[in-house]
Design brief:
With 253 residues, this protein is of the alpha/beta class. The chain is 23% helix and 21% strand. The strands form four sheets. Strands 8-7-9-10-11 form a five-stranded mixed β-sheet. A two-stranded antiparallel ribbon has the order 1-4. The chain contains six helices and eleven strands.
């Protein structure tokens, strides 16, 4: 089939390896000191690797190539994660594992009554000891949150990359206040968020969607998944994207 896919100019490639690290599908590998597209069917053509290349050796072209095999990519990610966890002395339950009686406590739904009043500006240099969490529900991980839940009804939804709350000091007050927050990392989670996000948008009365991501290329996967879900939901839902810099500034909104 003819489709968009990454192309690497070997003459321009300096062998830095940044693109291989940015390609979370595993389509790019370092071979004899040069970056190479080793698996056409692992490349989704979205180009998360492009901004990482300091030499401008990567472009997106349209050519005959094997179809993107999402299932194979996810299986590879899962195998890699299992190996990593095994090496670290942890175990990852295989697909279809039945949790112990009572279920996992981390997946039990809860809602919290939060004071969403905006705090007044600080007039001096004293420490604010009255800052309250603005997390309004549990669970909050995209992988754990149910597709349909009471807390989604009539909610303003915040879809945030894991790192954002650590990078931006006032994240709870400025982004989470008055919203239902779900978080994830497309770099670390071996799943495609778009399918679950689509179902959440379809099955619930979501009033708006805010996407907060970091400036790093891998965070583009979260933004793309959310946009894909908004389109696939068949609903008109107001949305916005906010991008944070690594040093904790809003650089695009």
């Amino acid at each position: 089939m003819k489709r968009k896919i990454v192309e690497i100019d070997e003459a321009k490639c300096t062998g830095c390896g940044l693109c291989a690290n940015a390609c979370h599908e595993g389509a790019i590998a370092m071979v004899d000191g040069k970056a190479k597209l080793v698996k056409d069917d692992y490349c989704d053509g979205m180009g998360d690797c492009l901004p990482e290349c300091p030499a401008g050796a990567i472009t997106i072209v349209e050519r005959e190539a094997a179809a993107y095999d999402e299932k194979a990519v996810q299986e590879r990610k899962m195998a890699k994660m299992q190996e990593k966890m095994k090496t670290g002395g942890m175990a990852l339950h295989p697909e279809g594992h039945t949790p112990p009686p009572g279920g996992c406590p981390g997946k039990a739904m809860r809602t919290f009554n939060r004071d969403t009043t905006q705090l007044p500006p600080r007039q001096d240099n004293s420490q604010l000891s009255t800052l309250n969490s603005q997390l309004s529900q549990w669970p909050c991980q995209i992988r754990l949150v149910p597709v349909k839940a009471p807390f989604f009804q009539g909610a303003k939804l915040l879809i945030a990359a894991d790192c954002t709350a650590y990078a931006y000091a006032n994240f709870h007050q400025e982004f989470m206040r008055g919203k239902v927050t779900i978080v994830g990392c497309p770099k670390l989670d071996p799943v495609d968020y778009s399918e679950k996000l689509t179902e959440i948008l379809r099955e619930n009365d979501i009033k708006s969607v805010a996407i907060v991501r970091m400036e790093v290329p891998c965070c583009g996967g979260l933004e793309m998944a959310a946009k894909k879900a908004l389109q696939a939901s068949g609903k008109f839902i107001p949305w916005q994207v906010v991008t944070l810099s690594l040093d904790g500034r809003i650089i695009d909104s």
